[in-house]
């Protein structure tokens, strides 16, 4: 991204030096700079390991495009628009919420939207105190730690658990205040399961409008899960045999139709892959010799699916 940023800057300087006015050439230059430096391809690369997530990828491109165009506008004296980047993630277990939030912290840093780009994960116990006044203090301390980065609050609805009298409400109020005050160098991401998050927003009607980005992390279908499995296997420099693939696909198909509610999506796949690597190792150790292919291929025998 460093080079990309550089290239953008070059693009900007070009326009300033060559032509202070907004004419067709400058416009063309601007467009060219955006597509030529093709920072979208950088975003594509960064997110290429994430299967699906079309809407998220599109959102990141919109954010990036807005930064670039804001810069161009500023150069010719037009006002830029401030981007508020706070987000809500709704999705079932293992749909990638935490992984994406981590990634965004780094990307926002690379895009110069955050000064540090670190990732702070907090839960109810980190924010909510036991006596009056303690909650605001604790929450402020966590926000302070997250300044310049992303504050990720998982199971955010647990803050509304006890209703009006609960100190969780104080944590929400403190967060809201800081989201407004510090939105230039602090991104708040609240995450949780879809139904609970919806309920949380209904109970706190003022919240929704403060999050310009509400993203749904969909459950993966069987073919997406297979892609994720292959990718996880290949990133560890293994391969699945055709039979192993077939066995896994059939199993996933059955799993998805039977246990929709507690199926942990990509995390389930990661567990399957990691376990099959262990079983593969055990299987090979019982042999005297093995070939290169033996060391690479995970077979149907290595997939112990019922244990998952
Ligand atoms: N689209 C995807 N493509 C590839 N891998 C994925 C994808 N989504 C999730 N994973 C992987 O699945 C695992 C679980 O993801 P993660 O922990 O981010 O899920 P989560 O939504 O935060 O789950 P939970 O709600 O249980 O906290 C991680 O190893 C992650 O890399
Ligand atoms: Mg998570």
Structure description:
The protein has 3 domains: 1-81, no CATH class; 83-218, 3-Layer(aba) Sandwich (Rossmann fold); 222-302, Helicase, Ruva Protein, domain 3, CATH 1.10.8. The longest helix is centred in the first third of the chain and has 22 residues, at 54-75. It is α/β, with parallel strands linked by helices. Helix content is 56%, strand content 9%. Bound molecules: adenosine-5'-triphosphate (ATP) and magnesium ion. Magnesium ion binds next to helix 5.
Summary of the model, kept short:
The protein is α/β, with parallel strands linked by helices. The chain folds into three domains: 1-81, no CATH class; 83-218, P-loop containing nucleotide triphosphate hydrolases (Rossmann fold, 3-Layer(aba) Sandwich); 222-302, Helicase, Ruva Protein, domain 3, CATH 1.10.8.60.
Mean pLDDT: 85
Tell me what the CATH architecture of the largest domain is.
3-Layer(aba) Sandwich
Q: State the end-to-end distance.
A: 39 Å
Strand arrangement, major sheet: 2-3-4-1-5
Into how many domains do the coordinates divide?
Answer: 3
What pattern of helices and strands is seen along the backbone?
Answer: HHHHEHEHHEHEHEHEHHHE
Bound molecules: adenosine-5'-triphosphate, magnesium ion
Q: How would a textbook summarize the main sheet?
A: 5 strands, parallel
What percent of residues are in strands?
5-15%
Number of helical segments with 4 or more residues: 13
Total E-strand runs:
7
CATH superfamily of the largest domain: P-loop containing nucleotide triphosphate hydrolases
Spatial extent as radius of gyration: 24 Å
Highest-level CATH class of the largest domain? Alpha Beta
- CATH level-3 fold name of the largest domain: Rossmann fold
Determine the fraction of residues in helical runs and give it as a percent range. 55-70%
